[in-house]
Write a structure and sequence with these properties.
The protein is of the alpha/beta class. Helix 3 packs across helix 4, helix 9 runs parallel beside helix 10 and helix 10 runs parallel beside helix 11. The chain is globular and about 50 Å long. It starts with a strand and ends with a helix.
Length: about 300
């Protein structure tokens, strides 16, 4: 049985301010789930916290990705921490933070070799200079960045761009109407939209594993953004778009993926405790992670 390590990566550097003078509350995600006794429920080892740089929300159109220098610094530090856990054969469960922490996870794996990515998200997060003039928030661009699209101070740390190849990515759960859906398909990135998962979550996961368990890969990472869930289940996110997945659908998808011996870790992002004053959504997510990882 793999040794689970719980690690906090509470960076909110990849999101724009929700309102003038405020900062995104997703940096409280890890604390809210730990309040649900997640460490004990997973029988996990303590991985500690990778403390992010200070959030600065000043930005104007044309500046590129805001907080880029701080994100690059944090990416290296998170990668350094994850490197040790994965090399030791441990299974990191990383509590974000926003989706920009994906850069640190995939940089860590890229340093070790060629790894795949199961990208479970309500949105493709594939905005980049080639398809948008609105580049700015890394949390909406993380998949583009880890596949080598965007400014080099984020995409090519250590000269290792891309951190994951297009053909080694499975995008799972985006809304059917995602604006980047056709572009992803043209790039041969494996894609299953929310409707596909509603039809048969286990089969979608098995199809993804046919790519992610390829002998060309040393393993794969699982990223889950809480907004893959429908707002009726998970309203406490920054973009609660309709037609998302149920808890049962996500549970079946995740369990099949994480059960693979080639899966090397899992991360959770975007849940915002500021939007969940009664901690109902925190309980939902803690239960989900426990059911996925504990037999």
């Amino acid at each position: 049985m793999r040794k689970v390590v719980l690690l906090d990566a509470p960076s909110n550097l990849g999101l724009r301010p929700p309102a003038p003078g405020t900062i995104p509350g997703c940096y409280k995600l890890a604390g809210a789930l730990r309040d649900q006794r997640l460490l004990e429920r997973l029988s996990a080892s303590e991985g500690g916290v990778v403390v992010p740089p200070r959030y600065r929300g000043e930005w104007k159109q044309g500046d590129g990705v805001f907080n880029a220098q701080a994100i690059a610094e944090y990416t290296r530090r998170l990668a350094d921490r994850l490197d040790g856990h994965v090399r030791a054969g441990e299974f990191p469960v990383v509590l974000g933070g926003d989706c920009s922490i994906l850069l640190g996870s995939m940089l860590a794996l890229r340093r070790m070799g060629r790894y795949g990515l199961a990208f479970i998200d309500g949105h493709s997060d594939f905005r980049h200079p080639g398809n948008s003039s609105g580049v700015g928030a890394a949390a909406g661009e993380d998949l583009a960045l880890v596949t080598g699209r965007g400014q080099s101070d984020l995409t090519n740390l250590g000269g290792l761009s891309p951190y994951v190849r297009d053909g080694d990515v499975s995008v799972l759960g985006i809304r059917d109407y995602d604006e980047c859906r056709d572009e992803l398909a043209a790039l041969k990135i494996q894609l299953a939209v929310a409707e596909d998962i509603r039809h048969d979550a286990e089969e979608v996961a098995r199809e993804a594993l046919r790519r992610l368990e390829s002998m060309e890969l040393s393993g794969f990472w699982v990223h889950m953004d809480a907004d893959v869930l429908d707002p009726s289940v998970m309203p406490a996110v920054d973009s609660p778009d309709p037609n998302g997945l149920t808890i049962d659908e996500v549970r079946r998808l995740l369990r099949t993926l994480v059960a693979s011996p080639r899966c090397v870790g899992l991360q959770l992002t975007i849940y915002d405790p500021d939007l969940d004053p009664e901690a109902r959504c925190a309980r939902v997510l803690a239960d989900l992670i426990e059911h996925v990882l504990v037999a």
